[in-house]
Amino acid sequence: MLQFFVLTCFVVTQVTFASSNFCINGESLEHTWLNYNEQYLFDHWLGYADHYEAHLPRPTSKKKQPIRMLEIGVQSGGSVRLWKKCYGEQLHFTGLDIDNRCKRMKNKKENIHIVIGSQTNTSFLSQVCEKYGPFDIVIDDGGHTAHMIRTTMAAMLPSEACMREKSVYVVEDTHTMSKCNDEKSYCGDPTDISSIPCDAFLQQHSQWFSISNPALHLVKETAWAARVVSVHLYDSMIFYELGTKSENKRITKGWDSFSNIEEKVQQSEYTMQRKVHAHPKETSKLLV
């Protein structure tokens, strides 16, 4: 019986730099954050700003359809004011929180809506999407537990009522994976959180597994991952970009070629792996 295991997921993060005029006010998002001086508390990690600029749609002063954002986790409300300052009138903002005090941020004239409920209540999430979605941007800055993250993604990402065809889903503060089994119980094991983006990355390769051996179903289909076309990992942040998946076509041009020795190398690696699994102590020195 053939078994397939995914042990970990390695990602090389790209380096991004703040744009000088990302926001509608002509400032970078980082600069907008640093210049914030309103009463409602804003508590964020400054490094997030560059990554947001790299992946979120840019605001524009030209008349076009609104950008709809859902932020899960409003708390004191500083982020509400800053997203509105960055995107201006184009932003239709919906904030979701379990604390009724967050309603103070509601402002119909500015298209700021606040809803009270749990991010793990999937029927409630559906109602929010039906009324205020579909969203171009969803930011999960809620409870940060593995269960909350998975439950919310499973409810929202597959739904066209929740997420536009081309949209971005962001999970913040994934460093909670370093706080498993503490008093807040973010996770049982760090991989409860770190394995989530790996599910999407693995499913992106499902066609390759079916080509290798159509009789085997090595990739567990995950409904929320079906619409994900790219995953970007950073320190404490994950960006899932949704869109229409296109077939990856191979191109071959030219005529002067020679066969490679890949098969011989692969056979050697395969033999070594079998030895390691069969006699780990005896082969450990060979791997140093």
Annotation keywords:
16% strand, alpha/beta, seven-stranded mixed β-sheet, Rossmann fold, 9 helices, disordered N terminus, 288 residues
List the helices and strands and how they pair.
Blueprint (H helix, E strand, L loop, with lengths): L28 H6 L13 H8 L11 E6 L5 H10 L3 E7 L14 E5 L5 H11 L2 E6 L5 H11 L6 E10 L18 H13 L2 H7 L15 E7 L2 E6 L19 H17 L1 H4 L5
Parallel strand pairs: 1-2, 1-4, 2-3, 4-5
Antiparallel strand pairs: 5-7, 6-7
Can you describe what's shown?
The protein is an alpha/beta fold. It folds into two domains: 29-242, Vaccinia Virus protein VP39 (Rossmann fold, 3-Layer(aba) Sandwich); 260-288. It has helices at 29-34, 48-55, 78-87, 122-132, 146-156, 191-203, 206-212, 262-278, 280-283; strands at residues 67-72, 91-97, 112-116, 135-140, 163-172, 228-234, 237-242. It has a seven-stranded mixed β-sheet, sandwiched between helices. Helix 4 packs across helix 5 (146-156). Residues 1-8 and 10-18 have low confidence and may be disordered.
The strand line-up of the biggest sheet is 3-2-1-4-5-7-6
Q: List the total number of helices.
A: 9
CATH homolog superfamily of the largest domain = Vaccinia Virus protein VP39
Mean pLDDT, all residues: 85
Helix and strand element order: HHEHEEHEHEHHEEHH
Q: Note the quaternary state here.
A: single chain
Q: Low-confidence parts lasting 5 or more residues at pLDDT below 50?
A: 1-8, 10-18
- Estimate nothing, just give the exact number of structural domains: 2
Shape: globular
Work out the strand percent. 15-25%
What share of residues is helical?
Answer: 25-40%
Radius of gyration (CA) equals: 23 Å
Q: In CATH's first tier, which class of the largest domain applies?
A: Alpha Beta
Question: What's the β-strand tally?
Answer: 7
CATH architecture descriptor of the largest domain: 3-Layer(aba) Sandwich
